[in-house]
């Protein structure tokens, strides 16, 4: 049995009308100085393509004087008990490499953990934060596969919102 990592204290948490934990946010150490300034949202799911998206966003952010990187990790709906016990730990493990990459580059971040449909969760958070850009990794699916599987990238492109950067 693997040991769960120690988690920092979240800076915020969100609950639904039934009191179920549905969202959390964590800051890097040190935290972003101005997280509301030109926020970019980077979708992170633990995959190599998501890690490439984080690297791309960090590289682009270095060329911009004021850009706050917000990571988002979306988990499928969990029961009340599972959300309390596992939501933060699952997200913390899935985003470990992305957070480490930004830490190594000295780029502060804010991690948002939400439950629900991935595309809807990303768009909702991007609207809340008033993001100027969403950065997401492409899994390299062809047109046919994307249409059949209903990829998150396709949903984000069709539902609108902030500028979308898809990193291959």
From TrEMBL:
UspA domain sequence ranges: 41-159
InterPro entries: Universal_stress_UspA (IPR006015), UspA (IPR006016)
Stored Pfam families: Usp
UniProt family annotation: Belongs to the universal stress protein A family.
Protein's recorded name: UspA domain protein
């Amino acid at each position: 049995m693997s040991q769960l990592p120690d988690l920092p204290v979240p800076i915020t948490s969100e609950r639904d009308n039934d009191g179920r934990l549905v969202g959390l946010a964590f800051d890097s150490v040190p935290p972003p100085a101005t997280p509301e300034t030109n926020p970019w949202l980077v979708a992170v799911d633990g995959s190599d393509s998501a890690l490439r998206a984080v690297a791309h966003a960090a590289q682009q952010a270095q060329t911009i004087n004021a850009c706050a990187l917000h990571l988002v990790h979306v988990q499928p709906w969990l029961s009340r008990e599972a959300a309390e016990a596992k939501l933060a730990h699952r997200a913390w493990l899935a985003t470990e490499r992305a957070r480490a990459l930004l830490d190594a580059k000295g780029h502060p971040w804010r991690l948002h953990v939400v439950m629900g449909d991935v595309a809807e969760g990303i768009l909702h958070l991007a609207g809340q934060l008033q993001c100027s850009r969403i950065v997401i990794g492409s899994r390299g699916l062809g047109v046919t596969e994307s249409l059949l599987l209903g990829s998150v990238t396709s949903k984000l492109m069709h539902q609108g919102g902030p500028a979308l950067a898809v990193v291959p």
